[in-house]
Design goal:
globular, about 15% strand, about 250 residues, Alpha-Beta Plaits, about 15% helix, 6 helices, three-stranded antiparallel β-sheet
Amino acid sequence: MSQSQPPSSATTRRRFFTQAGAGVALLALAPGVRLAELAVAASDDEPVTDAHRWGLWVDTSRCASGCDACVSACNDEHGLTGMGRPETDAQWIRKVDLKDETTGREVSLPLMCQHCEEPPCVDVCPTGASFRREDGIVLVDKHICIGCRYCMMACPFHARSFIHEDLSGQKTHSPRGKGVVESCTLCVHRVDENRAPACVDACADAGHHALVFGDLNDAQGPLASALAREETDELRSDLKLNTAVRYSGV
């Protein structure tokens, strides 16, 4: 299928800039919040481990064309205020319409960070700002991101955004900063509170139920059960990234 709009291995040892400090931008992040802390513990009592691997199933047969409930919920949850410039505005999740040029069949689907098991963004990051938690969630530590945007070039899903503007009114659970890269976090703050990502709840509230969130390692859980009975695909499966987001009907 072709898109009607442009899309907005072993882990290699990273090379660190010996003089990275010279290029670090000053960040205006939410007070007292360090995203790196989210890599350590899901709660005060339960550290993050690889016992879980969080992911999503997208049933495109239920995803309504023209519906942007998931996008709006993400924007509200993380304070992603648009600046009126689609080419540079932050998009942690976006709707994409696909059309099969042979059959004419069309589908609509949400596209976001795929939370790969072998994330190219992590491989190319020179400072370690892009990292993968033990439970599979891929994040950006904006305190050490130098804005080189190598990760944006490496991501085959065009799922990362660069912050060009000064920011205000940030959410303490989702720190952001001018001059750094950001992307979908699977609403890690909600996951650590045993809640589903905002996009999943919004899709259910809209009556579509096109998004199922869960633990890929839990064979009896809603996500693994759905994947066991449904035919699903990874986007860019040829890259062998073992993504945590799977799609039906693509």
